[in-house]
Amino acid sequence: MPNQDIIVKYLFYSLDFVIIWAMIYWVLYFLRGTRSANVLFGVLAVLLTATIVVDYVERLTVLRFLLMECLLPVLGIAILVIFQPEFRRAFAQAGSLFVSNRTGRETIDQVTEAAAQLSTTRTGAIIVFERNIGLTDTTRSAVPLDARVDSLLIQSIFYPNSPLHDCAVVIGKNNRIVAAHAVLPLAEEDYFVNGKRLGTRHRAAVGISQETDAVAVVVSEETGLISLAKKGRLVRGLKPEELRFQLRTLLLDRKTPWKRLGDAGDLGMPESGEAAGDGGKDGEL
Fold first, then answer.
1. β pairing state of 233-235 and 226-230
2. Gap between the Cα atoms of 67 and 47, Å rounded
3. Which of 2, 101, 137, 154 is the most buried (most CB within 10 A)?
4. Where are the domains positioned within the chain?
5. Domain 101-283 homologous superfamily, CATH
6. Which residues contact 143 (CB under 8 A, 6 or more apart)?
């Protein structure tokens, strides 16, 4: 019978391996499809190449000194600086797991109805649902409101001649419209869906979903397509009933995981015959 200490030792070896594997998988999963992933792979490639060269060519004493004594000690600080936005977003989303927030069914129905009408008239709009991570930084510079979520009110806000039609409407945790004319952070300029560069409105929806756990509904001004952004993913070409179902899945049923409607490299889901990308007027937020 094997020694109990040996069994415990191998159990801890296995646990150590599983934890390291999970950490690597989590980092790669979180950075998938982003520019930061390319930066990470570039840094690892340079370090690996330099290490191999130094190990096999013993006469490169200066390079060995720079690598071992100068580069490696500051690498940790450099990684914190380079990936600061990703670390902040990861910790914010991790903290949101311990807070619960639920959007009302009536709120979802009103937003769905408004999106359907705005899509019919091809009126550009972006509606953001605040969830567990607060959007105070976003709403601080916006026009504050405290109004019940109503389809007609949302349509009037985004009416082209309305002074509040630019930027986004934010629906707070209290199921009320808390702000209009809110400026959102933009996703990267080279963010593409099905080979098409996104307009500013859709990049803003993706940007706020990357920075926080918010869910954003977008109506294209050029095509009338309804889109949904969550966790940096953008789903295009949703019908009103599909939008209602997805919002209820995301905001009502906390036990149902986010349905992977698209991978990081293939996020579009346009209706057949309709364009996948926006340009022109949709370039204005």
1. antiparallel
2. 9
3. 154
4. 4-97, 101-283
5. DNA integrity scanning protein, DisA, N-terminal domain (3.40.1700.10)
6. 164, 179, 180, 181
